[in-house]
Structure formats: C-alpha cells, structure tokens
Amino acid sequence: ALDDIYIDADQRDAGQSVDLASTIEALERMAKRLEALSGEEGGFHGPIWRFQRSGMLPFETGRLVGVQRPEIDDRALQEMDPERKEEDSNLETKEGDVRSTWEPLPEPSETHGVSISNRSDLGLVPTSAILGSKEVQDFHETERQLREVDSMSEHRQSIRNGVPMPADPTQRDALSSLEDDLADLDI
Question: What tens digit of pLDDT does each residue of 102-142 get?
Fold first, then answer.
C-alpha cells in the first residue's frame, strides 16, 4: 500500500505530493510501531491484542463465569489471523475467584411512575408542593402579563392618530400611504 502511495505522490503536483508525503510518514511510523509491538515471534502482546483475541476487557478477565462470558467465534478469529496460537491458558478463570455482581430486578408493577403515597417515602417532593409552588404561580402571572402586553400592542397598532385602522388590508395600506403623503404638508 505504501508503494502505491509513493507512485501516486510522484504523479501529482508539489502541493498534493507534500500532503501524501506526510500521510506516508504517518503510515511508516505506524508500521514501525506495529513491528515493534509484534516482537520477534510475530505475535502481538498487550491489552489491545488480548482483547482482540478474547473479546474481554481487562477488568472482565477472571470475573465472568462461563454463562456470562460472550461466545467467541474461533473460526472467525482463525480466518482473521491464520497464524494465531491458542492462548486460552491465561484466560481461564478460577472457580473460587468468581463473584456475581448482578442483582435481580424487581417484577414490573402495573402502575406507571411513582404513586403519591410513595413519593414521600422515596424522598421526592410531594405533588401538592409542586402544583402550589411560588415558581409555578409566578410563571402563570408572567404569562398573563405577556398576553396583556400583546393585546395592548395589537390595539395600539390598530389606532393611528386617534382613528381606528380599517380591518381590510387594502384600505389599511391606502390609509397609511395617504397619511405618509399628507405628513409633508404644513397646514
């Protein structure tokens, strides 16, 4: 793949070649890192490679029993890495070290949410306190005042110089243009 990139970089102009050269350098550094990680035998070691082989995170190793451990498709692993060696010896769990961290869930109830009588038992605010709170009343008062201001604004826009504006939009436009024309006259 790097050879193809080299050939492609040679065929491009200077600006594009510089971009491809930085890509090539990054890929070469990654290839060197992979070679260093693989060791002399060609097998990869370390937490990432153990996870790839076993499918288990480091904190899961040795803690999950066989029933909870996800199934690993050995055929797929063999297909992905034909030179893979079986290293199940370090992945085996000891029966004495296994602890269950799962707790059974309670059966679902027929009611939705939390009943009013149970709210205080659970340390939640009672519904009466929520509905009668000062903040909710202030919110409703603010909404009422906004509605009043909006209605006053509509009323103000419908009256000009003490004369109510006509309801018909064409008459309203004609009256507005007449007022604009007469505004320049000195009486």
Answer: 788 777 766 656 555 566 666 666 555 555 577 778 888 99
Full-model pTM? 0.21
* Lowest mean pLDDT segment, chosen from 38-47, 73-82, 145-154, 171-180: 38-47
Q: Which residue has the tokens 């509905």?
A: 131
> If DSSP states are collapsed to H, E and C, what string results for 45-108?
CCHHHHHHHHCCCCCCCCCCCCCCCCCCCHHHHHHHCCCCCCCHHHCCCCHHHCCCCCCCCCCC
CB–CB of 76/82 below 8 Å?
Answer: no
Distance CA 149, CA 157 (A): 12
CA 168 vs CA 109, 156, 162, 164, 174: distances in Å: 60, 17, 18, 12, 10
**Closest C-alpha to 127, from 111, 115, 141:** 115
